[in-house]
Hints:
Structural class: mainly alpha
Order of helices and strands: HHHH
Strand content: under 5%
Distance between the termini: 149 Å
Number of helices: 4
Oligomer: single chain
Radius of gyration: 50 Å
Helix content: 55-70%
Amino acid sequence: MTNRLKTEIEEEQPELEAPKVKEEKTSSSPGFFGNLFQKGAISKEAATEALPFIIFLAFLGMIYIGNRHSAEKNIRKIDKLNKEVKELSWDFKTLKADLMFRSKETEVMQRVDTLLGLKVSVEPPLKLKLDQDEH
């Protein structure tokens, strides 16, 4: 190769450039994703290579949402059981107080008198003695 002048090289090359004409778009704009693929920001090959990762992320998202729903369901169930425990505790305390009241001696005497007709003895009890010889 020899050194040649720039002008000689330009003279040898035929004119290839034609005047540029703007092409009018007849279709509507492709949108955000269409622009990404058309302008070369993301190639179709790169998008297809990233598809398994995108599916994996979608799967993780679904697991996260399902876990959240399950946790909220458990929280509602725990709240419901806590309310039931409080209610049963109140019932227990009420029944215990009622039992304590009914087991008082005066209450027992009154109920036995009205239901069975038994009365409290006014005489002291008799003490029985056994003879050792009769044994």
